[in-house]
């Protein structure tokens, strides 16, 4: 089953955290055939939110969610079950300073 890991933080990563990046986490999972996709995102201020209301397209700059935690990256894993996905998520360096939401993908 495939799982989406949404990597979030309440603030911008420090220079040290940026330098560490994934710290070999992604390379290991790619070699093992577990990581099937992913990437980092530009800051939330660069987002454009799209909504349709009464046939009109409504655009707004920035993220739609009014929350302190913002998604900074994502990964798609192929795992046997949720326990395996959580195990891999817990080893991601960002889990030490942010949060990683793990969700099964439909289909």
Automatic annotation (TrEMBL):
PANTHER family (alphabetical) = BLL7171 PROTEIN, BLL7171 PROTEIN-RELATED
Residue ranges constituting the YCII-related domain according to the UniProt record: 1-105
Q: Which SUPFAM superfamilies match?
A: Dimeric alpha+beta barrel
Q: Which Pfam families match?
A: YCII
User: InterPro entries in the record, alphabetically?
Assistant: Dimeric_a/b-barrel, YCII
User: What name appears for this protein in its UniProt entry?
Assistant: YciI family protein
Write down the species: Amycolatopsis halotolerans
For this chain, the family text in UniProt reads: Belongs to the YciI family.
């Amino acid at each position: 089953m495939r799982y989406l890991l949404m990597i979030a933080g309440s603030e911008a990563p420090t220079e040290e955290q940026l330098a560490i990046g994934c710290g070999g986490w992604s390379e290991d999972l790619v070699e093992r055939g577990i990581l099937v996709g992913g990437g980092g995102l530009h800051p939330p201020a660069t987002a454009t939110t799209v909504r349709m209301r009464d046939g009109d397209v409504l655009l707004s700059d920035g993220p739609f969610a009014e929350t302190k935690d913002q998604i900074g990256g994502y990964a798609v894993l192929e795992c046997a079950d949720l326990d395996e996905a959580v195990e891999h998520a817990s080893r991601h360096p960002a889990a030490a300073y942010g949060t990683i939401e793990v969700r099964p993908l439909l289909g």
